[in-house]
Amino acid sequence: MNDFLELVENKIKENIKLESILTIDDSSKHRTHKSFDVEKYHLRLEIESIYLKSLSRVKAQREIMTLLSEELKTKIHALEIKIK
Questions:
Q1: Three-class SS of residue 58?
Q2: What is the distance of C-alpha 12 from the center of its chain?
Q3: Max Cα separation, the chain?
Q4: d(CA 41, CA 54)
């Protein structure tokens, strides 16, 4: 796994109670987009978490976005979050 993806996963695992997480780099699917930047990622997170499911979808996603706020400024161009 890519070091950056591992960093994202570990940051989430250390701060949010979850059962499992899958981090998928979808950057290659966006190469033709005008705003594509090889230095930034298009990530998809698939998270299984009883805790996050107990929150509203907006609150759960906001918690993840807040946790990754620095990465969203510097390394993540797009982030898709699916909570199961």
A1: helix
A2: 9
A3: 38
A4: 28
User: What is the distance between the alpha carbons of residues 54 and 59, in angstroms, rounded to a whole number?
Assistant: 10
25: exposed, middle or buried (C-beta count within 10 Å: 0-12, 13-18, 19+)? middle
Average pLDDT, the chain: 91
Q: Which tens digit of pLDDT belongs to each residue from 1-34?
A: 689 999 999 999 999 999 999 999 988 776 666 6
Query: CA–CA separation, 30 vs 32, rounded Å?
Result: 5
Cα separation, 23 vs 7, in Å, equals 10
CA angle 1, 60, 17 (to 5 degrees): 60
